[in-house]
């Protein structure tokens, strides 16, 4: 069977499984729709949280980033896993003891302010839509390559699927589909890298294989990569703190990803689905355990991918280019612009004038067609006419293959069996769809529960709220699809921005809400607006409007740390100047901080539904 046939088989089977689980878990009440009836066992919730967490960024793009960045790429591993420690210790148990449905729920009730609830709601929407853009782009990339359809068609298929199972089962249906999606994505990630490690180094354990000798050369893989990168004008693969990834950027990005993890609404809401506080803590442990199975494998995947890119492309003529390159070239995510000698050269910043390997995913079909036509004219006239397309692509910072394709393309580079290549496609779709569904539920609950029910129409019946929730998911799916067709950046870049926004807005207001009894509504609101306003403007300015990195040279991926600090500073400075929360609010803080069994606490089951 061909790769495409295997892909149709795997995606058909897995999609059918997801829809079956969603149908079996369909709900007819808001508690089932928003928090899965609060009855999910800790180990299963940890598995679902891992799938919700390991998005297209983790599956498709993280290893690609490590492959391009080398040592510095480890910042994503540290940040995205360390955040679960903060979440399990500082937030999850207390928020679960508080009960209810959403993060804006906690903010509104704790600070006794509709304005605080509204600001938190807007922050949740902004973060979720930023995050979901990366997921829909991931869906489009997988479909474009493996089903050989247009990216837009791929996004539409993903939209339809996630709409069906998210609206049918809500959080209950999403939980069970995410459990299935976890096993699809983890098997799809681990099986290929084990096979590649065995084939390339003779070691079946990828983490050992990454440090072993390449069988063909008897030279350690990492040493070989360092030498190749030096020869081609790149920084050594294992070099630390180079270029824009100096110590301050590595530190800030890791910290922003950590606190952003602890503030992401679609992750926090998973801890509302378990039975009690103890289960919430164990959910954090199991989530980190299941996530580590992929994250500890990603560096090996990255190193193997980097080696194969050089080995299979460097110095090849048009006739010698491998099949994987030809298939991926059709997606527009990797392209060769010849300098006239007929041989491909992939070079680093020190030899940028020789670079001929680029990615075109950030350009429209028409834009790239124009560049390619001008480049061909430049070749035909030996530089006296037309435009050197390589210079144009370099100016647009589109050097090299798209980072989002490497995990998907590496099994093809290694010439693995067709079924393994297709399995990776199914895993990429599982990763993107699992996170997209969780984000869409956050968007739906923010509109239908926090805005409509809690602020505009408290007398709304449960049937009306459930109907609006499902309608909102439909609208959100369409908007997410538009972001997938016109993405604001590559997957991990967009996702990193969402983490910075969460770090700057939600983390401080949640920590102060739990541990700062004196903090009231005004400091919380002004702090949130300051943090997210600064972070969003800095990201937009440096990425899209040509601003210099004026804040100590910190890049957009790490600026959320500064936004978080501003949030904390503003809130703490205003606290003694503004009215204190009511006695009821302060008593609520005391109750949620009491260990289970130490006092009356909050009777979650008997607590009023908000």
Give an overview of the whole structure.
The structure is a single chain. The chain is an all-alpha fold. It is built from 24 helices and 4 strands. It has helices spanning 3-24, 30-35, 42-53, 56-69, 74-98, 103-110, 114-146, 151-201, 206-209, 221-231, 247-263, 265-268, 277-295, 298-313, 323-329, 365-380, 389-395, 406-413, 418-456, 462-485, 491-515, 521-544, 560-574, 583-593; strands spanning 213-214, 219-220, 335-336, 357-358. Helix 18 (406-413) runs antiparallel to helix 19 (418-456) and helix 21 (491-515) packs parallel to helix 23. Mean pLDDT is 86; it is low at 599-610.
Summarize it.
The protein is globular. The longest helix is centred in the N-terminal third of the chain and has 51 residues, at 151-201. The chain is built from 24 helices and 4 strands.
Helices and strands in order:
Layout: H1 3-24, H2 30-35, H3 42-53, H4 56-69, H5 74-98, H6 103-110, H7 114-146, H8 151-201, H9 206-209, E1 213-214, E2 219-220, H10 221-231, H11 247-263, H12 265-268, H13 277-295, H14 298-313, H15 323-329, E3 335-336, E4 357-358, H16 365-380, H17 389-395, H18 406-413, H19 418-456, H20 462-485, H21 491-515, H22 521-544, H23 560-574, H24 583-593
Antiparallel strand pairs: 1-2, 3-4
């Amino acid at each position: 069977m061909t790769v495409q046939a295997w892909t149709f088989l795997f995606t058909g089977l897995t999609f059918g499984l997801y829809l079956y689980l969603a149908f079996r878990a369909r709900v007819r009440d808001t508690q089932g729709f928003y928090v899965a009836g609060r009855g999910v066992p800790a180990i299963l919730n940890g598995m679902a949280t891992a799938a919700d967490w390991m998005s297209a960024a983790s599956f498709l793009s993280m290893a690609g980033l490590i492959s391009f960045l080398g040592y510095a790429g480890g910042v994503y591993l540290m940040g995205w896993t360390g955040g679960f420690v903060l979440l399990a210790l500082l937030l999850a148990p207390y928020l679960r003891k508080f009960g209810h449905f959403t993060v804006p729920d906690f903010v509104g009730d704790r600070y006794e302010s509709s304005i605080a609830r509204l600001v938190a709601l807007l922050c949740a929407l902004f973060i979720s839509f930023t995050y979901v853009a990366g997921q829909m782009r991931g869906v489009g990339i997988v479909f474009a390559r493996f089903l050989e359809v247009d990216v837009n068609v791929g996004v539409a298929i993903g939209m339809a699927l996630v709409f069906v199972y998210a609206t049918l089962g809500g959080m209950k249906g999403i939980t069970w589909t995410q459990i299935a999606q976890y096993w699809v994505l983890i098997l799809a990630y681990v099986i290929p890298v084990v096979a590649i490690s065995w084939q390339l180094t003779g070691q079946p354990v990828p983490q050992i294989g990454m440090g072993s000798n390449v069988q063909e050369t008897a030279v350690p893989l990492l040493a070989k990569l360092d030498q190749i990168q030096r020869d081609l004008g790149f920084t050594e693969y294992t070099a630390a703190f180079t270029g824009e990834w100096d110590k301050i950027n590595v530190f800030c990005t890791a910290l922003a990803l950590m606190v952003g993890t602890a503030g992401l609404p679609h992750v926090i809401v998973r801890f509302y689905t378990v039975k009690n506080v103890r289960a919430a803590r164990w959910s954090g442990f199991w989530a980190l355990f299941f996530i580590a199975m992929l994250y500890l494998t990603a560096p090996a995947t990255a190193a193997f991918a980097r080696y194969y890119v050089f080995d299979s492309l460097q110095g090849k003529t048009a006739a010698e280019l491998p099949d994987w390159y030809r298939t991926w070239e059709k997606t527009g995510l990797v392209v060769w612009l010849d300098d006239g000698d007929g041989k491909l050269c992939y070079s680093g910043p020190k030899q940028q004038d020789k670079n001929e390997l680029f990615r075109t995913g950030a350009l429209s079909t028409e834009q790239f067609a124009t560049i390619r036509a001008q480049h061909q004219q430049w070749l035909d006239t030996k530089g006296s006419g037309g435009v050197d397309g390589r210079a144009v692509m370099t100016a647009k910072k589109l050097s090299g293959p798209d980072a989002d394709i490497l995990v998907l393309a590496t099994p093809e580079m290694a010439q693995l069996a067709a079924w393994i290549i297709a399995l990776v496609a199914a895993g990429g779709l599982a990763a993107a769809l699992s996170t997209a569904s969780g984000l869409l539920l956050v968007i739906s609950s923010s509109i239908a529960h926090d805005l409509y029910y809690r602020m505009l129409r408290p007398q709304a019946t449960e049937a009306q709220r459930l109907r609006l929730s499902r309608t909102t998911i439909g609208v959100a799916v369409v908007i997410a699809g538009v972001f997938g067709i016109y993405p604001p950046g590559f997957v991990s870049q967009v996702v990193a921005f969402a983490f910075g926004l969460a770090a700057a807005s939600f983390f401080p207001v949640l920590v102060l809400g739990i541990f700062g009894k004196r903090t009231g509504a005004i400091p919380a609101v002004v702090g949130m607006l300051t943090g997210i306003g600064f972070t969003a403007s800095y990201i937009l300015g440096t990425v899209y409007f040509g601003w210099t990195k004026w804040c100590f040279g910190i890049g957009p991926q790490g600026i959320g740390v500064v936004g978080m600090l501003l949030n904390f500073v503003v809130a703490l400075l205003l606290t003694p100047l503004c009215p204190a929360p009511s006695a009821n609010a302060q008593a609520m803080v005391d109750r949620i901080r009491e260990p289970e069994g130490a006092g009356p606490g909050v009777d979650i089951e008997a607590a009023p539904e908000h």
